[in-house]
Amino acid sequence: MDQITFHHDTVLSDVHMFLPNARHLMTRLNHVGQPVFISKFRILSGVERHDDNSDPRKSVEEEKHDDVREDEERDTDVTKEEAGEEGGGGNVEPSLDKDGDLDVTHRPRRNPVEDSGRDVVCPVILQQSDPGQEEEEESTDNEDDEGFKDIIRIEHTMATPLEDVGKQVWRGAVLLADFILSEPVMFRGATVLELGAGTGITSIVMATIAKTVYCTDVGEDLLSMCKKNVALNRHMMESAGGEVRVRQLDWLQHDLCTDPDAEFSWTEEEVADLYDNTSFIIAADVCYDDDLTDGLFRTLYRLCSHFTHTCTIFISIEKRMNFTLRHMDVSCEAYNHFSLCLSQLQDLVDGRCSFRVEQLPSNFAQFLLYERIEQLELWKVTATPLLRDKDHSHSEVLAS
């Protein structure tokens, strides 16, 4: 593989396309042969978040560069005006060719390779990386970032088929991370479950405030990447006293994996902790397929209806508009199905649990660099149990 190839079913996150000062450093190939990159996300300081008129996607260095460039352009305009005054008010006859068109003199093109004296370098990936070399590079990178507690390092892929979108970072995950960072009092010391965590960036941010975060998804390759991202950012979580546990949770299954031989299985103690202490459930940009959306809401109902305490759910979503041949118009089918599921959840009456749904404003502080478009939404669901039967064992809960 010597390049990233786009197919008809390939998708690429806007976060990776427009991340300012991006350091998309390819580190290796994963188990299925996809290139794995590493990017750094910096948490903005209070000073950088203060100016509402500045573009949040720009770093301080970029804004300084823009200021310098504006000054240079202003000086150039002044020089041109002065030159025009000296030349009689700028009334200079334009140069025309034989057909009467404006004759524009072009600068001769230069060959950058010849000017630099260097040969063209075309990097080619020959083989998957050596695990020992990965550990050495990871150790070096950790040492480099130890002094920067505001840097989040995330391994991810780019340009994946739809079934592997969890290996990319999406705007909904960053929006939810912003909300978490803007509400530290709410989440401090809590036990949190993330559904469809993907690369784990939102769980990592949550663990800088919360006590325990169960970071869940499906797929060994994805969970391994998520586990590595947790290890890359352990210094941020340990200093805050938080912990991320990467576990498998399949929305299309009715029970949790407790097989001790499986790498990302749950222990009985963790299952008990999940049902007894989870105060918040979060999910970031996970509703893009109707079947998976149905599975998500069934999982939310199954979990919350067996809690003996109130649980608050936060779901971020990006309303993606697509032209469909079926409607011959622009529509948001995935978002519409998500809205339908929200409405059905709120109208559900079964005597076990009640759900209250509300959309939250997205005007909270922006801590990370991305484009917060108007199609990004954050929803809050409050689940209150009506039947508080503590006699059910956790094994019975899993089987139900």
Characteristics of this structure?
400 residues; alpha/beta; Rossmann fold; 7-stranded mixed beta sheet; 3-stranded antiparallel beta sheet; 13 helices; 35% helix; disordered C terminus; protein methyltransferase activity
General description of the model:
The chain is of the alpha/beta class and 400 residues long. 35% of the residues lie in helices and 20% in strands. The strands form four sheets. It has a seven-stranded mixed β-sheet with strand order 8-7-6-9-10-14-13, with helices on both faces. Strands 2-3-4 form a three-stranded antiparallel β-sheet. Strands 1-5 form a two-stranded antiparallel ribbon. The protein is globular, with a radius of gyration of 26 Å. It starts with 9 loop residues before the first strand and ends with a helix. The protein has helices at 14-18, 60-86, 112-116, 131-145, 171-182, 184-187, 201-206, 220-232, 234-240, 268-277, 290-304, 333-347, 394-399, and strands at residues 10-11, 25-29, 35-42, 151-156, 160-161, 191-195, 212-217, 243-248, 278-284, 311-318, 322-324, 329-331, 353-360, 376-385. α11 runs parallel beside α12 (333-347).
Quick description:
The protein is α/β, with parallel strands linked by helices.
Class from secondary-structure proportions: alpha/beta
Shape summary? globular
Radius of gyration: 26 Å
* SSE series: EHEEHHHEEHHEHEHHEHEHEEEHEEH
CATH homology-level superfamily of the domain at 166-385: Vaccinia Virus protein VP39
Helix content: 25-40%
- Profile the largest sheet: 7 strands, mixed
Assigned CATH class of the domain at 166-385 = Alpha Beta
Percent range for β-strand residues: 15-25%
Average pLDDT works out at: 80
CATH level 3 topology of the domain at 166-385: Rossmann fold
Taking strands numbered 1, 2, ... along the chain, how are they ordered across the largest sheet? 8-7-6-9-10-14-13
- Compute the number of helices: 13
Strand tally: 14
N/C terminus separation: 46 Å
Stretches where pLDDT is under 50 for at least 5 consecutive residues are: 50-54, 57-64, 118-131, 395-400
CATH architecture of the domain at 166-385: 3-Layer(aba) Sandwich
GO molecular function: protein methyltransferase activity
Biased composition (Basic and acidic residues): 48-68, 95-118
Keywords: Methyltransferase, S-adenosyl-L-methionine, Transferase
GO cellular component, one term: nucleus
